[in-house]
Amino acid sequence: MKIAVESSVLIVNQKTGVAYYTQRLLQALVSMDQEDAYELVYLAFPGRKVPDFGVAAPNVSRRRIWWLPGKAYNLSLRLPLGLPIDLLAGVRPGIFFFPNFVRWPLLWTKKSVVVVHDLSFIESGETMVQRHRHYLSRVVPRSIKQANHVVTISESSKAQIVKHYGTDPEKITVITPALDHDFYRPAAKKTVSATKKRYGIEGEYLLYLGTLEPRKNLAGILKSYRALPDVVKKQYKLVLAGGKGWLDEEINQLIATAPAGQIVRTGYVETADIPALYTGATLFLYPSLYEGWGMQVLEAMACGTPVITANNSSLPEAGGNAAAYVDAKNAGQLQQTIAKILSSPKQRADMRRQGLAHVANFTWEQSASRLLDVFRNVA
Hints:
2 domains; Rossmann fold; alpha/beta; about 375 residues
């Protein structure tokens, strides 16, 4: 069987969660599945390099739609009848796999699978750019209806899809993100020191890592940190690692009014540096207002760092019994939890041990095996 994969998400210059999930899932999938042929179909976007995708195997080929710019195709999706992607690419697969929320129009291909990672545009829509929210609100329900099967990344997201769209639960399979355990593990002290120096971090620190945008509750983190005793803030800097997001006026104002030297903004972090940043942190803070999964929770635990996260959406699924949980909208509770854990080396050691045991349950091979089962059942 030939399986076409809409792979435009993999040619972004700075990979985020959806791109990382897609790439690692495909790598594990083609490694275990030698029976089927995979064709990676993608559009051309200005300024983006032609990728190697990080996916290589004898049964993998690429098909670039070179004559139609990606932006032009995206505009066509706003029309009542968009252009069929299989016709444009000249492919006739048994299944077309769409890993990024949208099931694009098809002409020849009879069967398709779409990944709807979460419903943040509904559950946390006020934290999104309006045009993105409106676009997803229009195309996601259509994609769910047209696809033969839907994959999502948590039981929480599955329940929301059923709730909002009345989708048959049997049509939805949960395939959680996993970890590259050879990569996400405690880094050597020498590596941590060099990485801290490269990003301008001195001494001990509390870490947030992710895009600096409202849904991640940066305002809550900053307010909680500001409320900590001065002696704690003198010992622990707050490091905000990640690229610039959107709707960040309040975040920037809180950073600008903090005393000099307390907060370090690293900007976008190269993937190779992420384990060392996690390892060097005393605590990882991730009290997001909503998450389809919360990949950073697992990554931090795998690097031996205690995690404080929120008790909403899918985050308890990601953190299990190894994380400390707070109400994301209660900055006082977050501040108290930070202070309590910082004052207890024993609790931090217990959380570190529990976290390392917890993340062992998540492998890309297991996730890829579930996706292959989905393809087999749809076919």
